[in-house]
């Protein structure tokens, strides 16, 4: 029996072939490893891809979030409204600058931020809203942006799952004040190490992030900004530029696999991912819901199909965040979803044979007769 790996980054890297080697050789020959032409070229190319006025490369997605929050004026003690069903990085970015997360529950269909609950989280210290475009689908941005505008709050988008995702035609990261991307190797656009970017249409925010990533020094009128060291290196930028050309095709393949799963598993339709009207889902993860999760995963593993859980513990349940949390609300939808989610293998290099092995294993594991 052949294993279907949850992810196969070696396969993905080797699909770049000799081009990746050429890219590395060019960077080595240039003798320039930080702040060179590759970084600038990729910043311009990725900002243009998103339709944003500027892109500022940083060292990771977490750094993109925290530098964007700082650039939007979030200060220690401020509250940032976000969701609890996300990666630890989302909340780590908030707490790392001394701000406090206030968790809001999610929409039961898309599992992204529920805009209707935002008013209940507003306090005198609320400074920003941080929606997460979860699993590759944009949060319901229109009502989030409308609420933020009325209340004078910044909106910082967590786009780590959402390279190329769209909301009524607008690309993730260009709707709020800043969009924060991670190029962690597993993401839809992944580097060969750590990398991230802030995209924005606000040139003041872009300039602040540029200063913050380089000890705060970049510009004279920003003295008083406590900076960091958070740079996107030339090797990563060069590889990302090469891979950016293939991003749309890779996302199309992800969507095609998602469609194949949906067609093969129609009996489970209500447990499958839901793409809301007007949204273009890029399926960073294909996450379904099952009641007996441990049993289901064990049965899939018996068939050689690896699965994962994103995420094992909702952020409001983490011990580390009890003391810093700004709200005391229950999050019933988040809790319910979290106890049932399982991620199936979905990546562009998956073969048709492997896709079939996955759907066969799922059908058997759920004993669905078709
Ligand atoms: C991966 C990820 C991040 C952070 O990215 P890093 O590059 O690992 O710092 C932030 N938010 C979400 C939702 C993520 O999945």
How would you describe the overall organization of this protein?
This protein has 370 residues and is of the alpha/beta class. The chain has helices at 9-14, 18-30, 37-50, 61-71, 88-96, 141-151, 203-212, 234-244, 247-264, 293-302, 332-340, 352-366; strands spanning 54-58, 79-83, 100-104, 126-130, 154-158, 166-167, 170-171, 178-182, 196-200, 279-280, 286-289, 341-344. Strands 1-9-8-5-4-2-3 form a seven-stranded mixed sheet, sandwiched between helices. It has a three-stranded antiparallel sheet with strand order 7-6-10, with no helix packed on it. Strands 11-12 form a two-stranded antiparallel sheet. Helix 6 (141-151) links the parallel strand 4 and strand 5. Helix 3 (37-50) runs parallel beside helix 8. The chain starts with 8 loop residues before the first helix and ends with a helix. 46% of the residues are buried. The model has no long low-confidence stretch (mean pLDDT 95). The site of pyridoxal-5'-phosphate has 15 residues, from helix 4 and helix 5.
Spatial order of strands in the largest sheet: 1-9-8-5-4-2-3
Biggest sheet features? 7 strands, mixed
Mean pLDDT: 95
Oligomer: single chain
| Total of helices | 12
Outline type: globular
Bound molecules: pyridoxal-5'-phosphate
End-to-end separation: 23 Å
User: Which percent bin holds the helix content?
Assistant: 25-40%
SSE pattern, N- to C-terminal: HHHEHEHEEHEEEEEHHHEEHHEH
Q: Enumerate the spans where pLDDT stays under 50 for 5 or more consecutive residues.
A: none
Radius of gyration: 21 Å
Give the total of beta strands: 12
What would you call the structural class?
Answer: alpha/beta
Strand portion: 5-15%
